[in-house]
Design brief:
Layout: E1 10-13, H1 22-37, E2 43-46, H2 50-53, E3 61-64, E4 67-70, H3 72-81, H4 92-119, H5 121-132, H6 140-158, H7 166-184, H8 197-211, H9 218-224, H10 227-241
Parallel strand pairs: 1-2
Antiparallel strand pairs: 1-3, 3-4
C-alpha cells in the first residue's frame, strides 16, 4: 500500500474511433474521471481485444505495477488501499447514500445503454454489430457480435428488461436523471464542494450519452432536459480533462463531433 503510484500506470479499453460502444466508453470515462480526481496519472491504451484481456471480461481495466484490476468499484477499492480516497470526508450516512445513487446509475443508465446497444434492432444493425465486430474478419466479426448479443439479451431477460419497449427504457433514464438532478441541485458536486466516485460515475455516463451519435437523439435529449446535469458535465470536462495530455484523455480525443462547450 505504501508504494507510490507508478508513472507507467495504464488503462485499457477497446479501439476508440471504430470499435468501442456507448456503455464501455461510459465505464472507461468514469474510471478516467475518478483517477483524474485523485490526481493519479494514467495512460489510455486502446486494444481491439481489451475485453478478452480483462480479468473480469469487462472494460476498462487498469495495469498498475504487477496488478490488473477491472471496473470502477474494484478500482476504487484498489486505489483506496494505496492511500487515495475521494469519499473519506463523508460520514456513514452520506457513504450509504452515495452507494445507493451509484447503484441507481448502474441499474438504470448502464442497463439502458446495454438495452439500446443490443436490444434495439435498428441500433444493433446500424451501429452495434458493425462496431463490435470491426477488428475481426468475416465471419468471426458476426459470430462474436451474435455471441455478445445473446449474452446481453439473456441478462436483460433475467432482470426483467427484455419485454420493455424503447419508450419505457427512455422513461427509466428520465426518472434516473430526475433523481440525480434533484440530488445535485445547485451544488458543484453531489456531496458539496469535493467530487466523489459518484461524480466520476455520473460524469462518465452522462457525458458519453451527450456526446455519442446514435440513430436518434432521444437518449441525449433526456439528459439535456436537466440543465444542472449538463452544467455538471461541462464543469468536470473543463476542470479535469481540458488542458491535460491529449493522448491520455478520452474527452479530449473523443471521436464525436459534438461538444458541450459550443
Amino acid at each position: 500500500a505504501a508504494e507510490p503510484w507508478p508513472e507507467n500506470a495504464a488503462l485499457y479499453q477497446q479501439l476508440k474511433e471504430e470499435q468501442i460502444l456507448l456503455s464501455d466508453n461510459a465505464s472507461s470515462l468514469a474510471v478516467q474521471a475518478f483517477l483524474q480526481m485523485c490526481n493519479l496519472p494514467i495512460r489510455v491504451i486502446c486494444r481491439a481485444n481489451a475485453e478478452y484481456m480483462s480479468p473480469s471480461g469487462k472494460v476498462p481495466f487498469i495495469h498498475v505495477g504487477n496488478q490488473v484490476v477491472s471496473e470502477l468499484g474494484p478500482i476504487v477499492q484498489f486505489v483506496k488501499a494505496k492511500g487515495h480516497s475521494l469519499s473519506d470526508g463523508l460520514d456513514e450516512v452520506q457513504k450509504a447514500e452515495m452507494k445507493a445513487y451509484m447503484e441507481l446509475v448502474n441499474n438504470m443508465l448502464l442497463t439502458a445503454e446495454l438495452y439500446l446497444q443490443w436490444c434495439d434492432d435498428v441500433t444493433v444493425e446500424e451501429i452495434t454489430h458493425p462496431r463490435y465486430g470491426s477488428p475481426y474478419p468475416w465471419p468471426l466479426n458476426r459470430i462474436l457480435s451474435y455471441q455478445k448479443q445473446w449474452e446481453v439479451r439473456r441478462k436483460m431477460k433475467a432482470i426483467g428488461w427484455a419485454g420493455k419497449t424503447l419508450e419505457q427504457v427512455l422513461e427509466d433514464v428520465d426518472q434516473c436523471c430526475h433523481a440525480l438532478s434533484q440530488r445535485l441541485g445547485t451544488q458543484p458536486y453531489f456531496f458539496n464542494k469535493q467530487p466523489t466516485e459518484l461524480d466520476a460515475l455520473v460524469f462518465g455516463h452522462l457525458f458519453t450519452i451527450l456526446t455519442t451519435q446514435l440513430i436518434t437523439d432521444e437518449l441525449s435529449e433526456k439528459v439535456k432536459n436537466y440543465s444542472n446535469l449538463t452544467a455538471f458535465c461541462r464543469r468536470i470536462e473543463q476542470q479535469y480533462f481540458e488542458g491535460h495530455e491529449k493522448e491520455s484523455s478520452t474527452v479530449a480525443a473523443r471521436s464525436s463531433k459534438k461538444s458541450l462547450l459550443r
